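::Encoded backbone::
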Amino acid sequence: MSRSRGLSSAAREGAKPPMKNQPMPPALNGLPKVLAERLWAEATLMSATEGRTVVALGARSTSVYIVLDGRVQVTLFSLGGREVILRDLGEGDLFGELAAIDGHPRSASIVALSDCQLASIPAEAFRAAVSETPEGAMWLAKRLTGQIRDLTERVFELNALRVRSRLHCELLRLCGTADQRTDGVTLEPTPTHAELASRVGTHREAVTREIGYLVDQGIIRQERRRMTVLDMQALTQLVRMATGEHHV
């Protein structure tokens, strides 16, 4: 996958004037109304082509981005070239707020998984918007709290669980908010075995073996690049047995 440092050339070339007088896109509907209006008024549209680096680890930029269309991936690379995938982000998701808040270098790289359209908000405008109203401040507090909870879960998994249980946790996480009683949940887009390995800190062969076991047990179905969880209750039970009731 081709990557460039910082905002991609496609994104820089795709910049458009602030959107104050333009209709607000549906991607901002998940934000408090006043906050969404403030951020959109300060936003600049950016485009990034598939495979390009939107934000690079260590960069001194501080803008905040909202994904309007497409998908991006939050990732890290070791000095030896090993990739660690933290999460995928889609329409309505926001990234870059940590650097906007503390002014420190970027803590991870953001790579476009597809052609994307993004809204870029200057750090100063973001800080003003979230501190202007109690609703904005509470939204940010809940967002950061959710990130801490997610990080706590992942640290526990990496330090306390075997590879197979870490994979079960990640598959359940990828199912998102689907009801645990719902069967036939297709992972869209379905990650490759190598990508799953990068998410749970192992190698592709270990993931392939465990996916084979889950297929044999009738818990998932794998068809080329399409993976479907056939038995959500069974997958949830595997996670519960490994982690305890508090983790699911």
Summary: The chain has two domains: 9-153, 162-247. Residues 134-160 form the longest helix (27 residues). The chain has nine helices and eleven strands.
